[in-house]
Design a protein that fits this description.
CATH superfamily of one domain: NADP-dependent oxidoreductase domain
Helix content: 40-55%
Oligomer: single chain
Number of strands: 8
Structural class: alpha/beta
Mean pLDDT: 97
Low-confidence stretches: none
Length: 268
């Protein structure tokens, strides 16, 4: 089984030619993990950019996420097959349940079992969850077993460190993928992060991404600018000191950016 790459390219909010250019530039710069979702409305453009790149499918790690409307067991597989057609591939490497959407009428057991069925049929190599709290993660584990859950992709940044949830996931052997690691760019102006960046000859983005990587998380930053895509990749070469890690740990402010009504759980 492939493990989750530490560094990927996010495509949230990128549409049309913008996402084609971002994925093309990312692949040219050496990104090999691409993260999309049914609700992003860009799977076909991501597929187009990948097809044009000439990068071998075996060298890529593609992630998509099932949207809430498709959680019922008779809808999940057809929706994933539709995603595969748009992405121009026979399989994705990872498929996630995008939001737990408690109260939408489909139980965790039903959608996790349907997702495991998609895996058994070869539509996806790995399965996982996104935006699940501890209790809902426990329900997902009860449905398919913790070894089946490759990751929980959660909002996590220096301003929202999600320690209780991250500690629980790591104790269960479930990998943490951090999205919005730069908090919509808010952390880029943080004085503590800027000071570390100056001292290290790095960018604030590299410092924030290096912090998450050093905690053992995967990151999937997005950018429409080629120079930022290239710069972000260099975060993998930056090792922060214990003191610097502690300075960033002190920035916690429960700064959640995303919590849609009806989709989000009760956060830990």
């Amino acid at each position: 089984m492939s493990t989750i790459p530490a560094f990927g390219l996010g495509t949230f909010r990128l549409q049309g030619q913008v996402v084609i250019d971002s994925v093309r530039n990312g692949l040219e710069l050496g990104y090999r993990a691409i993260d999309t979702a049914q609700i992003y409305g860009n799977e076909a453009e991501v597929g187009e950019a990948i097809a044009a790149s000439g990068v071998r499918r075996d060298d890529l790690f593609l992630t998509t996420k099932i949207w809430v409307d498709h959680y019922a067991k008779d809808k999940l597989l057809p929706s994933l097959e539709d995603s595969l057609a748009k992405l121009r591939t026979d399989y994705v490497d990872l498929t996630l349940i995008h939001w737990p959407a408690p109260g939408n009428g489909v139980s965790v057991e039903e959608f996790m079992t349907a997702l495991a069925d998609a895996q058994a049929k070869g539509l996806t190599r790995r399965i996982g969850i996104s935006n699940f709290n501890i209790e809902l993660t426990r329900q997902a584990i009860a449905a398919v077993g913790k070894d089946a859950i490759a990751t929980n992709q959660i909002e996590l940044s220096p301003y929202l460190q999600n320690r209780k949830l991250a500690d629980f996931l790591q104790s269960e052997g479930i990998h943490v993928t951090s999205y919005m690691t730069l908090a919509y760019g808010k952390v880029l102006g943080d004085p503590a992060i800027a000071a570390i960046a100056r001292r290290r000859g790095a960018t604030p983005a590299q410092v924030a991404l290096a912090w998450a990587l050093q905690l053992g998380y995967s990151v999937i930053p997005s950018s429409t600018k080629r120079e930022n895509l290239a710069g972000n990749l260099l975060a993998q070469n930056l090792r922060l000191s214990e003191e610097e890690m502690a300075q960033i740990a002190a920035l916690e402010r429960n700064g959640r950016e995303v919590s849609p009504d009806g989709l989000a759980p009760q956060w830990d």
